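Form 12-C: Joint structure prediction
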Amino acid sequence: MFGDYEVRNGHLYISGADTVELAKKYGTPLYVMSEDVVRASCRELKGALDKYYDSCGMITYASKAMCVKEMCRIVACEGLGIDCVSGGELYTAKEAGVPMEKVHYHGNNKTDDEIRFGLDMKVGKFIVDSYEELIKVNKFAGEKGIVQKILIRVTPGVDAHTHDFIKTGQIDSKFGFAIETGAAEEISKKAVTLENVFLSGFHCHIGSQIFEKEPFVETAEIMLDFINDMENKLGMTFTNLVLGGGFGIKYTEDDKPLPYDEILKPVLLYVKERRIKEGKDLIRLGFEPGRSIAGPAGVTLYTVGSVKEIPGIRTYVSVDGGMGDNPRYILYQAKYEFLIAGRADQPKEKIVSVCGKCCESGDMLGENVPLGEVSEGDILAVKATGAYNYSMASNYNRIPRPPVVFVSKGEDRLCVKRESYEDLVKLDI
Ligand SMILES: *Cc1c(COP(=O)(O)O)cnc(C)c1O
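Section 2 - Result
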């Protein structure tokens, strides 16, 4: 699902809601999320698993992409599990009423408190990412008199051709245990000797914003080889394999993502056919998309303040937000599509640079991007901002974080309030 936009009477609508009216009602900056797009994505993902893999598996939403209670509720209502990477995400999922047995607990350096919290919350599986964690999960689980299910995070050594900062499948990574170096085998051998953890399988994640199908098939091949090898060496069977998330989305016209059905079909059929050929039961397969569920569902609305033309250089269009609510440009030079919400059908014959209001020259949302006529008071909309925007937002310059409004079939509802100045000093002593 690649967004749900339309233009009516010149206004940009998202899932039947007029963005100009939303900006008027809630103020700007404003995050708007389409519940309809989130639900459609969840259904497409599950549909692919049903169609090509006998429903034998689970989709977990990587909540770090956008972790607020309402988002957790919606994806859980669609039957998805949730990935958490911190005590805070776990707490949010719990507060949202997500069934804890459907939670996968990630993180390469969980603190002792976080490990105990996860055990107390009875999360379905810990995704163990270090030797120290393995020992501690076993120890704390023993103290609590439980046996914790775990998966071990493995680095398969697949390069998914994406940005360096968001590439995680290769050996040189802070995440996981490499197959190639023998580290993955060593930790697995250790795990099966421990009494209070139960190793039910393996996990990997090769990167983000991936547009090709092949890396997933290649990864599945490497992981199944590894699992067969471990089963032979350890004399046991493993029932779970998580192949990560990372499905690409459309930020601009240059991005050409594949529908879930197409990107998942080859990998699902590969695993299914291989397991049948090997005379084995289907392994329970997991996928854990974050960006592709939350990203296309979101649009951020700003009000234009100043428009500063520097002759022969460029035009700066300043908005009432910036790197505080969307740090992705300053982090990765992420590209977005911009438009004026109230004149969404006007031609984009002007090239401008959209900047925020923070005291930082790098505080940009886009440089040299096409936009039509623009002046003070216009509502500027930025598409595909549902993922890694709200969740990465900060209070830099003591700017309160914007609220989050969900829309469905033309109806809007406030799900996260705008921060107030009082909120900003709440923790100050
Ligand atoms: C970030 C992450 C995901 C989600 O990645 P997306 O690109 O947002 O789909 C899934 N699994 C793990 C382990 C991650 O770190």
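Section 3 - Comments
The chain has a mean pLDDT of 96. The chain has twelve helices and 21 strands.
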